[in-house]
Predict the 3D structure of the following.
Amino acid sequence: MSVSEEKLSAIAAQLKKGVAPSRETVRTFLLWFGAERRGYNVVRHVRGALKRHGLATTPDFEYTWLDGPVAFTTAPAGDAQAIGQPGTATADPTFRIGRLDAANKTPIFVKPDALLAQAVTVMLTNDFSQLPVMTGPRELKGMVSWKTIGSRLALKRPCVNVRDAMEPAQVVSVDESLFDAIAKIASHDYVLVQASDKTYAGIVTASDFNFQFQALAEPFLLIGEIENGLRRILHQKFSLKELEEAKAPGDDGRTIESPSDLTLGEYVRLIEPEKRWKKLKIEIDRVEFLLRLNRVREVRNDVMHFDPDGLNPEDLVFLREFAQFLRRLRDVGAV
């Protein structure tokens, strides 16, 4: 029995006895399944295991912060977590800002009566552009930033205490749509994230968003480069009949006019027969190439199911290496 099956079986037994199982972070829960990220295939696998044991997680492991805790409960009849069917009433298709790491790091703050020099020191020491002004974890008074400090000094306004350089803070709920928050961050360079218990859970800045979307954009760009490289390899090598035969079974209504009309899985089907592979006239191992092409197809499924967790680091390295491999083929004139 696998680690995940053993642990879920034990949790189900605890719940039947009326004992509340210990909470686990999503990251630890995924490690039971040998996973680090919530990719499409991983989520399906986990939901299948939960279903077998009649379990669910609160909050849903797929939609909460990666390092946030989840509790294990008995799945109600028809529960979407146990069944694992997308599009059900309890599924949440919205990507929430609360899933970002920055939204879950308790912000450093200063009090309104603190000397402005203290705020400046904290900002310089931590390389912050702004700092919340608070009197407690739920008592927000405003925000101080280089912009507010500079504007007041330029106008020769008194700036002794933090309150002298304070402005209203921009606040969003932890459940705010990730994409709705973009406009607010673009206008104000940050948002403070307020948790459901009214504490301030974190601060998300323009820099955080830049890093997040850079991490998310690279796999999309690599997949696009790989697909373009494959189309170049296949260009004018096969007849229209051969391209049509590569279509997935049951997809007869789709018109195929060139390799660009085929999917990655259909590329595999097209060049898998040795007689077709020979038409490429590339002196590389067919079996190894097809293995890697199949892996590209699998990784692409995870990439296209956008996830703020990002791609598994090993898969990202693989995409980089395969894209580089196709570049080398072009550089030496093999395609």
Notes: The radius of gyration is 26 Å.
